[in-house]
Specification:
mainly alpha; 10 helices; about 300 residues; two-stranded antiparallel ribbon
């Protein structure tokens, strides 16, 4: 049975692995640095309301801790910033993300002490002054030890495979959830900048929905700052869990809601729906200005008059 110290060491290694790509590792943000390889699709230009990738199921999320209203985003007051400043902000965020990834990999690449049986050299007859009895006994023990070592290594490899698979599934879930949140990349950048790799790993491995918690922390810089000051992983986990318990999440679909089709004029229909005829006429005029052909505009006007005459 593992001792408490061994259990804590295993959990710490899991947290380091979980945060080894950085929270920015892979949101398709590839989440918690870059995608699995450190790459991440930038959201379209347009400030914090830009999406993290236009795709099916993208939603506008309202994230709030208890009844505390999130402070106004700094980016909301930076609409007048020129492209140079925006580019500088983006580069700084990317540099911070890269540094966090490097720190995480340095920690996870440090040799880990693993208690496994060791196998010595295979006995030789001459080692026992050619005493076959002693040699056979030693050889039998050696093969028994080899069997135990092989079994322990196989068990360790299987456990490592399951652990990595669980971490990968966790990261994939995080990335998929993050891809649905508008403006997630910029919110996540703030969290990556504030938290060290161990803290990021705790969020990814321990939170119920880490993508929501990360996005919310990005909206509440005061709470993010307080959380970042807690360096003990256990106390940090409790504090993060308390915040997640206070988190309120509501959504409204913002993408792929196709506008209702505009009213069309047909022989079987009456006048277009209110406003529909004017919008259609404006579209036809815009096309005509580009092509110089106003025949469709004139034809549509005649249809409108005929429809009104039938009323």
């Amino acid at each position: 049975m593992e001792t408490t110290a061994e259990t804590l060491e295993t959990q710490e290694n899991d947290l380091l692995d979980a945060g080894s790509d950085g929270l920015g590792a892979g949101n398709g943000t590839e989440g918690p640095g870059s995608a699995a390889n450190g790459e991440q699709t930038d959201p379209p230009e347009g400030g914090t309301e830009g999406t993290s990738g236009e795709g099916e199921g993208e939603e506008e999320f309202s994230l709030q801790f208890g009844d505390e209203v999130p402070p106004a985003s700094e980016s909301q007051g930076s609409e007048g910033e020129n492209s140079t400043i925006r580019d500088m902000r983006k580069r700084i965020a990317e540099l911070n993300r890269t540094v966090r990834q490097f720190e995480a990999k340095e920690q996870t690449q440090q040799p880990q002490q693993v208690q496994v049986p060791t196998l010595g050299a295979k006995p030789k007859l001459e080692d026992f002054d050619y005493d076959e009895g002693k040699f056979d006994e030693a050889l039998g023990k050696w093969y028994e030890t080899k069997r135990q070592v092989d079994a322990a290594q196989a068990e360790q490899q299987a456990a490592e495979g399951k652990r990595k698979q669980a971490l990968e599934e966790r990261q994939n879930s995080y990335r998929a959830g993050a891809a649905r949140i508008k403006g997630f990349r910029e919110l996540e950048d703030d969290v990556v900048d504030a938290l060290d790799v161990t803290q990021q790993g705790v969020l990814l491995a321990g939170a119920e929905k880490p993508e929501y918690l990360v996005a919310a922390l990005g909206k509440y810089p005061n709470k993010l700052k307080q959380l970042a000051q807690i360096k003990d992983p256990v106390r940090f986990a409790f504090a993060a869990g308390k915040l997640e318990g206070e988190l309120k999440v509501s959504t409204s679909r913002t993408a792929n809601n196709k506008a209702a089709p505009e009213g069309r004029v047909s022989s079987s229909a009456g006048a277009p729906a209110a406003g529909g005829g004017e919008k259609k006429l404006e579209q036809l005029r815009a096309e005509a200005e580009k092509t110089g052909d106003y025949s469709k505009v004139h034809a549509y006007k005649r249809q409108l008059k005929q429809a009104q005459a039938r009323k």
